[in-house]
Amino acid sequence: MSAPKKKKLKSLPSLLGDAQKVFNKWIRLRDKDELCIACGQHHEDYDAGHYVPQGPSSFLRFHEMNCHKEGKSCNAFDKFHLVGYRKNLIKKIGLENVEWLEENRRTVKRWSRIELEEIIKKYKS
Ligand SMILES: [Zn+2]
């Protein structure tokens, strides 16, 4: 008889990647009837674009107010895209919330395995 296969635990970085994928997909679905947050136009391809980039603020990485549907070209190639993003974001969630995001732009959070698994579960459904 063969021994039962041990379930291999996913590494933290790969969980983080999975969580981001599921979260981003959820954002695109939530905003499916909206236009690009940065330019207000329609695009062929969309990303889930973060207002505060994922690099400096790990805390806002999975924050629903910090992530909105954005045209791929605006998100990836327009270095001024955050100017329009901010303007439209204020319309969408209000200045107070935008300022709150900005205050937290350097807040660091270490995501635990359990938290990441919860994010995946929450946004998958
Ligand atoms: Zn755009």
Give an account of the 3D structure.
47% of the residues lie in helices and 8% in strands. It is mainly alpha-helical and 125 residues long. It has one domain. Helix 1 runs parallel beside helix 5 (113-124) and helix 3 (81-93) crosses helix 4 (95-103). The longest helix has 19 residues, at 12-30. The N and C termini lie far apart (37 Å). The structure holds zinc ion (ZN). Zinc ion binds next to loops. Residues 36, 38-39, 41, 43, 71, 74 line the site of zinc ion.
Task: Summarize the SSE layout with pairings.
Layout: H1 12-30, E1 46-50, E2 67-71, H2 72-77, H3 81-93, H4 95-103, H5 113-124
Antiparallel strand pairs: 1-2
Helix pairs in contact: 1-5, 3-4
The chain binds zinc ion.
Quick overview of this protein structure:
With 125 residues, the protein is mainly alpha-helical. It has 5 helices and 2 strands; from the N terminus they run αββαααα.
Gap from first CA to last CA: 37 Å
Decide which structural class fits the backbone: mainly alpha
Strand percentage: 5-15%
Helix count from the secondary structure assignment? 5
Helical percentage: 40-55%
Query: Low-confidence stretches at least 5 residues in length (pLDDT < 50)?
Result: none
Query: How many DSSP-defined strands?
Result: 2
Please provide the ordered H/E string of secondary-structure elements.
HEEHHHH
Structurally, how many domains make up the residues? 1
Q: Could you tell me the radius of gyration in angstroms?
A: 17 Å
Q: Keyphrases for this structure?
A:
125 residues; mainly alpha; two-stranded antiparallel sheet; 2 strands; 47% helix; elongated; binds zinc ion
